[in-house]
Design a protein that fits this description.
The chain has 397 residues and is of the alpha/beta class. The chain folds into 2 domains: 126 residues, Enolase-like, N-terminal domain (Enolase-like, domain 1), CATH 3.30.390; 259 residues, Alpha-Beta Barrel (TIM Barrel). It contains 12 helices and 11 strands. It is globular. The structure holds magnesium ion (MG). This is L-alanine-DL-glutamate epimerase. Its cofactor is Mg(2+). GO terms for molecular function: D(-)-tartrate dehydratase activity; metal ion binding. It comes from Actinopolymorpha singaporensis.
Amino acid sequence: MRIIDVRVAEAPIGSGFANAVIDFSAMTVSVVAVETDHVVDGERVVGYGFNSNGRYAQTGILTGRLLPRLRACPPERLVDPDTGLLDPVAANAVMRTNEKPGGHGDRAVAVGIMDMALWDAAAKAAGQPLHRLLRSRFDRPAPESAPESAPREDSVWVYAAGGYYYPDGTVGTLREEIRSYLDLGYRDVKIKVGGASLAEDVERVEAVLDLLPAGCRLAVDANGRFDLPTALSYAEALSAYDLRWYEEPLDPLDYLGHAVLAEARPGPLATGENLFAVPEVRNLLRHAGLRADRDVLQMDPSLSYGVPEYAAMLTCLADAGWSPERCVPHGGHLYNLAVAAAFGLGGCESYPRVFEPFGGFADDAPVTGGRVRLGDRPGVGIEGKADLHRLVRNLFD
Ligand SMILES: [Mg+2]
């Protein structure tokens, strides 16, 4: 199995809302198509990849550095010698050659985009859904042998991340939005904080809590906006409520600030969606005072060099006494859902009705009781999401 061509495109993913730090009006994503010579059912296997919302398209790094390295590599080095199929782990290492340590940023996103496409192609060639291929490739225990309480392979807990700040938004429109998520089958939801005054945010929190049925939980997300005194005053105000978690109160690299906050606030904290490599996660575990019994880690495989780096992060977590069940990746798409199922993570973020068509899961897998079922469709499953499949065909066919 060989790569014949890799095509790179950009697509808009703009929306008219904001979190506490950025507006999404000019947001873009990269979309790639990895065309191979491998034929299944009379058609050449093509793998598709894209990045999660919140980081822009990465055309320059893809076309200027990563793809030339893949093209220059002897094709046999990109193949698993046992199966003869594409080996995304080998390709990942090739793309990352001649890059200095540190400064991960956009480069990690660019590799993540290619990683999704390479796994999509490899899983389609193997005739397996991605979550199953990853399980065997990374030697994760089969679901039968996992303890009863462990996350099941066939479905993943998801929560509805919304509650953005809209120019004409009111508490009333926020309540309508949250009600619509409950109607879709979600049980747990998340809203933004930090884009309004503390008093207004508390009003938003109370309005949503008032709507949630028993057993459903609310999380809040400040997107790294606050300095330590503000983060502490929000923590104090929010401690009156039983929140699922308080997300990104501080800059993602302010580890000591997190440690002060964790000391002051017993409630669960969440962070990690803007940490893109193992050393950054290791520093978080060493210095941020996070608690393995309650806090939530949100590193996003598609933004952080893809599955090989994510698997290494999980090893780093295990060494520090953290279960994969504490991980709930940012991103809200099929690839992260497959990773969550494969590695037994606690869940996966979801963005109902926004960041479409990249966000969301298979058309035939609605959210039921706050969980999404994994299917048997080979690859990442883009072909099972009609609007996304149409978009990639329009971009590349
Ligand atoms: Mg977030």
